[in-house]
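Forgive a beginner's question, but would it be possible to get any protein sequence you like and the tokens describing how it folds?
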Amino acid sequence: MGRQLTHIDCFAGPGGICTGLHAAGMKTLVAIEYIKSCCETYQANHPEVHVIHSDIRKVTEEQVLPYIPEEGVDLVTSGMPCETFSTAGNTSRSFYDDRQFLFREGIRIAQMCKAKMILFENVPAITSKKAAKDSNQLIVDVLKKELRDAGFENYMEVVLDSTQFGVPQKRNRFFILACRFPDWWLQAPEQHHRPICVGDALAGLPNVIANSGVEGTEYTDEHSAYEQLMRDDAFWKREDLKNARITNHLPMKHRECTLKRFALLKPGESLKTLFDRYKGEERETLQAERILPKKMFIKRNYRLKVDEPSPTVTSHCLDEFVHPYYDRALTVRECARLQSFPDSYDFVGGPYIVPHIDRTVQDKYEQIGDAVPPLLAYAWGEQIIRLFEMNER
């Protein structure tokens, strides 16, 4: 089309959506994010974007409008925090608080900026979460009503499988695409990719030795089409930010007993497998040696399979995954590969790891796990550009 579509990124995280939309040819003008470490990573990788470090509920017109055209923007994206909707934890869905209504802020920003379209993203479980404990009304129905009230009467909804868009992980996400024009035709991007396996995703990254403190910086001679895409800064339109060396490929420190636990795992096995395999005195011996913990965690220490996509990369990915070949956790760069962040993307914000206590800080693993996969965002970017071209004729 004759012009470049413009975008505002709400709940921006470290920049997964922006990275994909940028590769597709869109221009992000403003990003809004509450977590300082995410803002630091975002700004380092997208210096052209005006990043607002703030609780989105406190963001004013004075902070946004000077950075956008007078006629408004084309798209607002809003991937609000998913903890209250997720079924991954035992108690998260039992909470009913203001987080589940943060979609209103995406709508507010869209109205403020005269956006033509809004794209909402969240976990599929949002479609079954009630608005209140004793209510039969669903959050997603409240969202749709408030979209209509705000003038976005034309919308479509879909659950997309990330493996169908070139992302090497099994990650389903729910989307609502809404626009102001009732006669516009809306459609989700087509799913057409063959699944990318973990082996292809990690190709070219050297092994790093647990506890060595030695970061891997040089690529190996192992290649795959996916590995080449992650290194293709022309595709990502990141030539000015290209890194000649691998970054964020630092091995974790593991206790000797933890390394022995990892050595017991075969591909596709996890801590739960070990608890099922070792019983009675054998398990007690392993627990006494601290090879097995006293408590079994279902989503912990899963050894990846090289010939399949990985399970969903979450903010707990450091604890959840073991390398398919080596007895260690994944590095930040390896997790970034599974999320489809390009290799030139440098996670500079926050500490390398931090306990999951202070929710105002996210370490590099958490930033990656909570992000939208850039290749999935790229598919949306291409599709939204196509929709504008079709509907503006």
